[in-house]
Amino acid sequence: MRALTVVPGRAGSGAVRVVPEPVVGDGDVLVDVVRVGLCGTDAEIERGEYGLAPDGADVLVIGHESFGRVARDAGGLTTGTPVVASIRRPDGCPNCRSGEQDMCLWGGYRERGIKGIDGFCAERFAERPEFLFAVPETIADVAVLLEPLSITEKGWRHVGVAQRRMTVWEPRTAIVAGGGPVGILAALKLRLQGLDVTVVERTHKPVKEALLARIGAGYAATSVTPLEAVAARSERIDVVIEATGTSAVAFECLRLVGANGAVILTSVTGAKRSTLLPADLINQNLVLDNVLVLGTVNAKSDDFRQGIADLAEAEGRWPGFLGALITRRVSLADAARALSHDPSQIKTVVEMT
Ligand SMILES: [Zn+2]
Q1: What share of residues in the chain are helix, strand, coil (percent, to 5)?
Q2: pLDDT tens column, 283-314
Q3: For site-directed labelling of 191, which of 7, 35, 51, 155 has its Cα 20 to 30 A away?
Q4: Segment 51-61, tens digit of pLDDT
Q5: Strand pairing of 292-295 and 262-265?
Q6: What residues have their beta carbon closer than 5 A to ion ligand 1?
Q7: pTM value > 0.85
């Protein structure tokens, strides 16, 4: 079968190659892939910065934002069921053993399409049923967005748990730094939670401003309005989600959040940049305002299930919004060319058929 692949560690090696059919073990589910979302991680892997092929293999099938249909009855799933697969596979550490491989302690986890196991940007894949999430037909067209949404689902769940440190926490205002798919989906989650949300990115994109207005979210560009000025529009910022991919912005966010607030950091900043920081001011804000700072990666099954519920609710409340985030569709034959980052796109997906 054909698949979008890279030779890990070799920049520019992304290509559609013929790879062996997936091995369907006892109890495994064979999935016909419908579409796969591409993201910044795929671009990093294609640049050779990241990624690990399966044991004994030279190439890695990439793509970790999946949507497909069950090819034949297996694992309690019937033929045709729309499904999304999670990414991370456990390594046997205490956290993985309890079903929280997103909290892996040993770091020996594998990730489909990223680290040690083939991904989903292929005509088919096989998977254990416990790593597959059936989605309703009503959100089949947009379920490829479940994985990027699951990042915020986990972060928000963790904030909820951590904020029980106080008796009363009633968040009203939020800033999301970063206007990529993760940032926009974070804003969507917070709008569903009833918060006033402003998405902030560097350069002003009127299309994105109009898109976010559809869900009642504000928009600002730091090229026009500095981040601190955006924050100053509200009496107090209760939640900041950082999803820009830039560590300097992450630290800037630590100064924005108000009393008892929470900062959720999601950017995997793979570069080795250093920056000068107003360390006293940042530290003082964190201490005097009882600020919670929470890093988060990946997601567990609860987060995927919550994400499915939220996609369905969002689709009912703001029909067409999620679909509008998929701005570019390419065929598998053209998929390698779509790997490099294109700032004019929100989400690029590879359509298998
Ligand atoms: Zn583990």
Answers
A1: 35, 25, 40
A2: 999 999 999 999 999 999 999 999 999 999 99
A3: 35
A4: 999 999 999 99
A5: parallel
A6: 91, 93, 96, 104, 106
A7: yes
